[in-house]
Amino acid sequence: MNANALSTLVSAVRSELSDVTQQAANEFDSLRPVRPLLERRCVSVDNALFRLWEASGLSKSGAALIAVGGYGRGELFPSSDVDILILLDDPSGAEDTQLSAFIGALWDLGLKIGHSVRTVYECRELATTDITVMTTLLETRLLTGPDTLYRQLLSAVNDDRLWTSGAFFQAKVDEQIERHKKFGLTGYSLEPNVKSSPGGLRDIQVIGWIAKRHFGATLDILPVGEFLTEQELALLNEGQDYLSRVRFALHRLTGREEDRLLFEHQQALAREWGFEDGGKLAVEQFMQAYFRNVQAVSHVSALLIDIYEKTLLHPAPQKATPIDDDFELLGDRISARHEKVFVNNPSNLLRIFAVIGRDRHIKRIDPETTRQLRAAAVLIDSSFRLDPVNRKLFCDVLASPYSMTKQLRRMLRHGILGRYLPEFEKIVGQMQFDMFHTYTVDAHTMKVIANSRRFLRADFTDRFPVTTRIAQRLRKPLLLFVAALYHDIGKGRGGDHSELGAIDARTFCEQHFFDEPDTELIVWLVKNHLYMSSFSQKRDISDPREIQRFAEYMSTEERLDYLFTLTVADINGTNPELWNAWRSSLLRHLYTETRRALRRGLGNPLVREDVIAATKKAAAHLLEFRGFLDDELSDIWGARGNDYFLRERPEDIAWHTEALADFENHGQPLILIKHSSESLIANATQIFVHARDIPNVFSRVCSALELLDLSINDARIYSGIDGATLDTFFVLKADGTPVDNSPETINMIEDAILRSLMSPSVTTAQQRIARSLRSFLSPTEITFLEDHGRNLTIMEISSPDRPGLLACIGQILSERDIVIQAAKIQTLGERVEDVFFLTTSEGLRLGDDQLCDALQADLCRALDKDNAA
Predict the structure, then answer these.
(1) Collapsed DSSP state (helix, strand, coil) of residue 732
(2) Residues 728-749, mean pLDDT to the nearest whole number
(3) Residue 433's CB: how many other CB atoms inside 10 A?
(4) 99-108 long-range contacts, Cβ below 8 Å, gap at least 24?
(5) pLDDT of 775 over the 70 cut
(6) 397 versus 777: which is more confidently predicted?
(7) Bridge-partner residues for 838, per DSSP?
(8) How far is the C-alpha of 549 from the C-alpha of 249, rounded, in Å?
(9) In sequence order, what E strands does 616-756 have?
(10) What are phi and psi for residue 145, nearest 5 degrees?
(11) Mean pLDDT over residues 423-451, rounded?
């Protein structure tokens, strides 16, 4: 066929393929199997390739056209690659011009073609050393060409000397481990990959490849029995069907090979699946269904790999060491001694985990025993839960001296935990649609329990020295574990999850033999598990009155110790990037000062004036050795208000004072920068700014720092009676790590702030809102609280994070002649939750509802203007 005729054929075939793809997209139903649509696309591509093969003059070349990979399996998603092998009997049998014409025509079709041209010998040689090539050649279909040549390829691939089933198994497992590492070893990430994340389609394919290499048959025709039960095959098929529907929908939605469930796609697919907002957001309902399917695939895949490993790599029987009448030890695996271990005595469904937790030599459960365990999980019903023996066994698991968290994770993985605690089953796979909560609620809960457990170990002291010391003196660590188990169990039901969780925790304690004092402590911890973190980040904890208020709420040192430990465990189990030196130092300071208040006695609080006097005395003592006289200090300090001496450390006051006294260019701002690991904001860079007659200093400094990709975590603003502002900022990098302390970096920060202060107007960042943030552009929320004791107004702002936010807030406050006395800044995923302590220019609280309403309207209008973009 000449070039013009081939071009005409390509155009016609391309149009036909487009029609088939569009028809499949129109027929797609999220609730119906997608396999027929995948097969139909395969048939249409088969036909297209056959026609182009004929038209290119290759039908008489002696070469064979073979589908490989996913195309070879008969699965073609709307935007998947079409992988083919052109198999040559004789390298000179097909002319290069014919092959070039064929391959060029394929690209002209608009298909994503992956092709190779090889002989049988070359295929075998490559497969010998490349596991990827070997895997690809396991899944082939002859499209056209000599059947004898194709069978030569099959014979070469199926030769046991090429890859033994054991070697192939180990290579695929190693490959899977590396792939899982790339996705953080979890399928429950915020934006999972449907194909490649743990529990995704690739995990199912790995099981199929291993089975095909060992048995020479695909999973769908493999007889169920020793290696695969009917239940396991059904779970794999259900998982593949569900994940395939999600992947098809992603390709259809994006028009490309997109396998990532990005935030914006999650919302679209939730609508496609028919979910609606209710007690849970539609997207959260969709993602919970997704994660539960991923979890099922992941668990079955791990079990089958365990079975393959035992059978293929370690087939020799091991000597059994009896543990008791029901269980025995095979190496480091616990094994059931007979097939009816769980059926005859359902309590063994819990007892096996208690046995493992008492014996440090037991590392794993024998895979056949795991099968029996999973099959018998249905025996856990209401009568099982009411049995005092089983309740005692569950408490034994929680009190395990060895690997307690691992036992709970095993119970979760095999369906035991959710059946024994129905309230826990509700949070399995439950996600929160934000960028703050990295894990599903059940995965987060396991991490919090693991953290609580680690604090009791000596080898965790280096990372958490304060927390480990506190945890190791807790009266009953078991109470902490129960509180961790229940702290988020009320999520996803609507309402206050802390209150709902406290109700469930009380029921659990009453049913599991906890006395009244222990029950009340656990319930109090669950109900208040967010209180300490929130208080430390939203209150001025340098003020002794706030410490007194918090101490009164704690009431006892025991409550303080338990809540501090749970809080640290919770924060570290929420998001790997959330715990940093700033949060650590805030909690440590709040804990230390509260413990002092409790030991001093709640009826004997610190007097604010005494704290101020003590701070001045300590600072004066430091400055005395630098030649300062009392009269000089009185002149310099006279312009400062009391809040300055209440919030600042004596060492920092001495630093500021000496610099101000030595500063000669009074018409210019004074900027001081140092790195401090001893300040309240540990490991932060401390920036001190003193300026006269410069409007809106806060906005200008925020703008300069943001342009340097630095994050303000704490700000203290003082207005002196001399008209000067004296501000302190504590800064980290945007990712929460300390700022480089080199002279070059310090000079760069100082120059940027100075330029911003001297600029005629505030320059704000102009970056576009990140793609990931655009899915969370919810309205700004602002609340005001009047603090009569300190005569100021507390303004809390919760808003989507975006470039220039702090500078914008500062600008609006300045325009309304409102003074920022202090600010606490925190970013939680996609949202900021900032707290500003405000007064009027006369130093009074706002105290005017109309002013607050107008301010709220101004801020919301400015901060939400990009939401519709």
Answers:
(1) strand
(2) 87
(3) 20
(4) 99/56, 99/58, 101/3, 101/6, 101/56, 101/57, 102/52, 102/53, 102/56, 102/58, 105/6, 105/9, 105/10, 105/52, 105/55, 105/56, 106/49, 106/52, 106/82, 108/7, 108/10, 108/14
(5) no
(6) 397
(7) 793, 820
(8) 54
(9) 670-676, 684-692, 710-719, 724-733
(10) 120, 180
(11) 88
Higher pLDDT, 581 or 161: 161
Angular region, 141: left φ>0, alpha ψ -120 to 50, beta rest = beta
The distance between the two most distant Cα atoms of the chain, rounded to a whole number of Å, is: 107
Over 80: is that where the pLDDT of 828 sits? no
Mean pLDDT of 661-690: 80
pLDDT number for residue 1: 61
Q: Is 847 left (phi over 0), alpha (psi -120 to 50) or beta?
A: left
Q: What is the DSSP letter of 260?
A: B
- Helix extents (H) in 158-200: 165-182
Q: What percent of the chain has pLDDT over 90?
A: 59
**Helix intervals (H) in 512-607:** 516-527, 531-538, 544-554, 557-572, 581-600
Rounded alpha-carbon distances, angstroms, from residue 594 to 465, 479, 568, 598, 780: 18, 22, 16, 6, 33
Q: What is the pLDDT of residue 90?
A: 77
Cα–Cα distances in Å, from 184 out to 76, 179, 192, 198, 444? 28, 9, 10, 9, 14
Alpha-helical (H) ranges within 794-840 are 805-815
Helices and strands (H and E) in the chain: how many: 37, 17
Give the pairing of strands 327-330 and 333-336: antiparallel
The H or E element containing residue 82 is strand 82-88
Per-residue pLDDT band at 868 (split at 50, 70, 90): very low
Query: In angstroms, rounded to a whole number, what is the distance separating the alpha carbons of residues 500 and 529?
Result: 13
Comparing 485 with 10, the larger pLDDT belongs to 485
CA–CA separation, 471 and 566 (whole Å)? 9
* pLDDT band, very low/low/confident/very high, at 869 (cuts 50, 70, 90): very low
> Residues 781-809: pLDDT tens digits?
999 999 888 888 999 998 887 778 888 89
Q: What size, in residues, is the chain?
A: 869
Average pLDDT on 325-337 reads 94
Lowest-confidence range among 3-7, 39-43, 709-713?
Answer: 3-7
Q: Tell me the pLDDT tens digit for each residue of 163-183.
A: 888 899 999 999 999 999 998
Amino acid (1-letter code) at residue 354 = A
Of 42, 71, 49, which Cα lies nearest the Cα of 139?
71
Task: Band the pLDDT of 462: cuts 50, 70, 90.
Answer: confident
| Residues sharing a CB contact under 8 Å with residue 221, sequence separation 6 or more, in sequence order | none
Q: Which domains does the chain have, with CATH numbers?
A: 3-161 (3.30.460.10), 166-313 (1.20.120.330), 319-420 (1.10.110.30), 634-863 (no CATH)
- What DSSP element (H or E) covers 140? strand 140-144
> How far is Cα 208 from Cα 73, in angstroms, rounded to an integer?
11
The radius of gyration of the chain from alpha carbons, rounded to an integer in Å, stands at: 33
* Contact (Cβ atoms closer than 8 angstroms) between residue 253 and residue 269: yes
Say how far apart CA 374 and CA 385 lie, in whole Å. 17
